[in-house]
Amino acid sequence: MMTSVDTGLMRVLADPLRLQIVTLLAEETLCSTHLIEETGAKQTNLSNHLKVLREAGVVETEPCGRFTYYRLKPDVIAALAGQFADLAETARATAESNVKRSCP
Question: CB of 70 within 8 A of CB of 50?
Answer without folding.
Answer: yes
